[in-house]
Structures are given as structure tokens and as C-alpha cells.
């Protein structure tokens, strides 16, 4: 196991509460075009009962990371290295049988599209009851009662009759609730929510987010919340990880990262976000350039080809030397701490107002 040094005055990154601890995770896919480095040296922690937000442009490795945590990658074409410690047990080396026992029980997942999780051929009630029977040994009758209880919890009206409906008889928002009921039926310690509200309208989205917060309070679930919506993240997360090109470029509490971001990529993300209450047609400042190829990632800092501040760093460090992300509150960037602060205050912050 990797030993972590505790910096004085800084919170230790892995305390007794660190339920999930991912260390130097690398996930590679062999494809016809070559090796895709989808996750490239990623480390993070999730505390029990807390929410870790993961943000980043599409293709930055958010979903692959979390599917790997669940062991849902194709073992044939995928190489996984590093550690995924769940209560100290390494899931990277755990046998598939053990992962199967964990999934839906200790660790569960909800997706953007509930139809990837719900089968059209079985009633909603049966799909909630089945994992409950499998993991707890409950009888059919008990499991049906539990399904009705869960449908009530997630706010489905007339749960006693709705339990016998098929997914197509539910609206989109109700299907999302049913999927949450299915994910939480065994009271998991960790819930992975991968863009769970992206497809929903704003009102339903707000209801689902409130529901997740309530359920987290009730069950003490640790949540990994993946989104590209910084507004949603500021509402949901305790800690935040900003991903770029399969790596973490910035980490900290959600307040710290959103109020005093230290990485040029995070500055770009914040600048490209519409202001609250602003006219959405107002021109935003999207980050120039496009996300890097993961087949042939840039040398040095993966963000350097799109970064406006490489000129501030002496020599060609940005294009030759990979910046590391320290522990705790950190940004993987060669700018000095003073430069990060003064550029943010002088150049970035005025644009965010
Ligand atoms: N099975 C796979 N084979 C090859 N490449 C993949 C596979 N799954 C994902 N990728 C690639 O890995 C990268 C990260 O994908 P993903 O984690 O889905 O991004 P995100 O969720 O951040 O949008 C993308 O470039 C994607 O094309
Ligand atoms: Mg994704």
C-alpha cells in the first residue's frame, strides 16, 4: 500500500473515515488504433457519508474511473493498475465473485439514462426486490414490501399499485427515482451517480438532487457525484476533483475550488459557465482548443497546448515535465503558488462577476 505523508497543518487525506481510497489508478484500453490511456495516475478519497464531486469535460475519464471502481470493465481489452481500496480491501485484485457481492450491496450506481439499469421486461417492483432478496436473503413477500417502502421513499405516488408497473409506464423523472430506489434498496455505503440528472428538466432535477441529499442523510451513504454542471456540484458536493485527460488537475473542498481555483483548466471551466440569472444567449468564454487525444496525450502537462499561462513558467517545463498533484488541497500546475493567486485575482475573478 502507498504510504502517504501528512503535511503539517493539513488534513490527512486518508483518515479512519476514508471509505474509498483510490491510488495511482491507471486504466488503458487496447484498440485498433492503439492504447487509449483513459485514466492515467488518478488518486482520490471518498469519506463515509460525504459527497465527492468529479467534474471535467466529456472524455476526461470520469465514467471509466467509476465503472472501474465497480469492476465493470472488460477484462480482456482493459488493463487496470493501481489500487482501489474499499475499507482497505483492494478491488483491483479482488476476484469477480467478490465484486459481484459488493455491487448493488455495498456499492451501487445510478446513471444518466435509467433504461440502461432498468429492464423493460420486468416490473419496477421486481427489479427493486431482486437485489434485496439476493443480498439479504429476504423472502419474496418481504422484498415486495421493501420495494413499496423504497418507492415511497423516492416519492412515487401510489407505490402499492405502481410497484407492479413496467418501466415504460413511468415518466422519465419517475424512472430516475425508481433507479435510485433500486440502487439504494440494500443501503449501500457508496453510491456512484454518473450525471444522474443531466437528461431531466430543471424542476425534476432539483427534486432528484434533494432526494439524494435526504437519502444520504438517512443512510449515511458516501456519494461520488459526476457531472459537468458546476452549479449542481456546488449544491451537492463536499469535496471536488477536477479531471482533465484522465488525471486529476485540482482537488479541494468544493468551496475552496470554486471560490479560489488554482488551475488554469478550472479557471477555464468556471469562465465558460453561464452566470446565475444571466441571459443564456450571452457569449461565454469557452476554453479554446479541444480536449487532448488519449491515444497520444500531450507531453508534460496535458493542458499545456490550451493553456494561456505557459509563458509565465520559465523554460519549457509545461511541455516537458508532468506537474504532480500533491495531497490535500492542490493543483497540478507549474505556476508558483503566488502566480496562481495573483493571476486568479487580477485576470480571472473579474471575468466571473
Ligand atoms: N471500452 C473502451 N474502449 C476504448 N476507449 C474507451 C472505452 N471506454 C471509454 N473509452 C475512452 O476513454 C475516454 C474516457 O471516457 P469516459 O470516462 O467515458 O469520459 P467521461 O465520462 O469523462 O466523458 C474517452 O476518450 C473514451 O472514448
Ligand atoms: Mg461519462
UniProtKB/TrEMBL annotation:
Residue ranges occupied by any ABC transporter domain in the UniProt entry: 22-270
Where does the protein end up? Cell membrane
* Keyword match DNA damage: no
Q: Which BP terms does GO give this entry?
A: peptide transport
- Residues annotated as transmembrane: none
- According to Swiss-Prot or TrEMBL, what is its membrane topology? Peripheral membrane protein
PANTHER family (UniProt xref) = DIPEPTIDE TRANSPORT ATP-BINDING PROTEIN DPPD, OLIGOPEPTIDE TRANSPORT ATP-BINDING PROTEIN APPD
- The name of this protein is Peptide ABC transporter ATP-binding protein
Look up and give the organism this protein is from.
Answer: Streptomyces pilosus
Amino acid at each position: 500500500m502507498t504510504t502517504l505523508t501528512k503535511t503539517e497543518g493539513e488534513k490527512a487525506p486518508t483518515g479512519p473515515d476514508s471509505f474509498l481510497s483510490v491510488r495511482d489508478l491507471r486504466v488503458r484500453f487496447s484498440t485498433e488504433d492503439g492504447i487509449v490511456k483513459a485514466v492515467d495516475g488518478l488518486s482520490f478519497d471518498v469519506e463515509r457519508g460525504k459527497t465527492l464531486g468529479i467534474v471535467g469535460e466529456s472524455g476526461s475519464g470520469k465514467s471509466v474511473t467509476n465503472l472501474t471502481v465497480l469492476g465493470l470493465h472488460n477484462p480482456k481489452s482493459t488493463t487496470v493498475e493501481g489500487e482501489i481500496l474499499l475499507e482497505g480491501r483492494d478491488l483491483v485484485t479482488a476476484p469477480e465473485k467478490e465484486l459481484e457481492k459488493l455491487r448493488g450491496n455495498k456499492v451501487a450506481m445510478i446513471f444518466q439514462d435509467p433504461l440502461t439499469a432498468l429492464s423493460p421486461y420486468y416490473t419496477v417492483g421486481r427489479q427493486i426486490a431482486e437485489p434485496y432478496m439476493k443480498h439479504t436473503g429476504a423472502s419474496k413477500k418481504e422484498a415486495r414490501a421493501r420495494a413499496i417502502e423504497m418507492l415511497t421513499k423516492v416519492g412515487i405516488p401510489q407505490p402499492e399499485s405502481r410497484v407492479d408497473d413496467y418501466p415504460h409506464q413511468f415518466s422519465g423523472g419517475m424512472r430516475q427515482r425508481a433507479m435510485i430506489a433500486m440502487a439504494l434498496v440494500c443501503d449501500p455505503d457508496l453510491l456512484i451517480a454518473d450525471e444522474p440528472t443531466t437528461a431531466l428538466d430543471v424542476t425534476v432535477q432539483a427534486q432528484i438532487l434533494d432526494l439524494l441529499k435526504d437519502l444520504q442523510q438517512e443512510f449515511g451513504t458516501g456519494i461520488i457525484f459526476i457531472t459537468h454542471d458546476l452549479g449542481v456540484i456546488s449544491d451537492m458536493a463536499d469535496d471536488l476533483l477536477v479531471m482533465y485527460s484522465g488525471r486529476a488537475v485540482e482537488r479541494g473542498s468544493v468551496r475552496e475550488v470554486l471560490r479560489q481555483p488554482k488551475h488554469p483548466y478550472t479557471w477555464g471551466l468556471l469562465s465558460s459557465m453561464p452566470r446565475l440569472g444571466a441571459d443564456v444567449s450571452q457569449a461565454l468564454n469557452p476554453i479554446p482548443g479541444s480536449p487532448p487525444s488519449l491515444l497520444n496525450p500531450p507531453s508534460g502537462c496535458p493542458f499545456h497546448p490550451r493553456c494561456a499561462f505557459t509563458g509565465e513558467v520559465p523554460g519549457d517545463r509545461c511541455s516537458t515535465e508532468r506537474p504532480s498533484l500533491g495531497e490535500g488541497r492542490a493543483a497540478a500546475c507549474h505556476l508558483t503558488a503566488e502566480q496562481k493567486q495573483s493571476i486568479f485575482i487580477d485576470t480571472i475573478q473579474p471575468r466571473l462577476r
